[in-house]
């Protein structure tokens, strides 16, 4: 079976990860450095592209890069450590829930600030409230 190798631009297109991000991941050791062609250009295999796609999906879900790297490493082990995966996911979910609560509070505060706004008023209650200290 022939091995398909792709230039960085094609790897970026297939994975949905930008070229500069791919280079960053390589520099930081998040993904292994790819093979190089005779002209020193990077060559990516389908496995390499799969790793990049995996990282993109983790990042799309909001995982920190360190957690995405750990999940990638766990996904490549012979025996998956489900407890480690679960712990990372639960920690991330708790962080997401905390952010949701903070955003809900922010929404309420902004609603309260804008409730008193009316068109054409030169004396804006919202700006007055924002200027109040404490």
Question: What keyword list fits this structure?
Answer:
single chain, 134 residues, two-stranded antiparallel sheet, mainly alpha
Describe the structure.
The chain is an all-alpha fold and about 130 residues long. Helices cover about 65% and strands about 5% of the residues. It has 6 helices and 2 strands, in the order ααββαααα. It has helices at about 10-15, 20-25, 45-60, 65-75, 80-115, 125-130; strands spanning about 35, 40-45. Strands 1-2 form a two-stranded antiparallel sheet. α1 (about 10-15) crosses α3 (about 45-60) and α3 packs across α4. It is elongated, with a radius of gyration of 23 Å. About 15% of the residues are buried. The model has no long low-confidence stretch (mean pLDDT about 90).
Q: Can you give me a brief rundown of this structure?
A:
The protein contains six helices and two strands. It has helices at residues 8-15, 19-27, 46-60, 65-75, 82-115, 125-131, and strands at residues 35-36, 42-43.
Unreliable stretches: none
Number of helices: 6
Q: What is the terminal-to-terminal distance? A: 69 Å
Shape category: elongated
Percentage of residues in helical conformation? 55-70%
Order of helices and strands: HHEEHHHH
Q: What would the average pLDDT be, to the nearest integer?
A: 90
């Amino acid at each position: 079976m022939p091995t398909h190798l792709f230039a960085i631009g094609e790897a970026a297109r297939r994975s949905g990860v930008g070229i500069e991000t791919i280079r960053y991941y390589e520099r930081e050791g998040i993904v292994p450095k790819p093979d190089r062609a005779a002209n020193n250009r990077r060559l990516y295999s389908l496995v390499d592209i799969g790793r990049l796609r995996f990282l993109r999906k983790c990042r799309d879900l909001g995982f920190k890069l360190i957690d995405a790297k750990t999940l990638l490493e766990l996904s490549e082990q012979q025996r998956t450590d489900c407890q480690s995966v679960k712990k990372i996911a639960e920690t991330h979910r708790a962080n997401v829930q905390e952010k949701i609560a903070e955003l809900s509070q922010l929404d309420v505060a902004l609603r309260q600030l804008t409730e008193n706004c009316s068109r054409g008023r030169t004396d804006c209650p919202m700006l007055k409230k924002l200027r109040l200290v404490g």
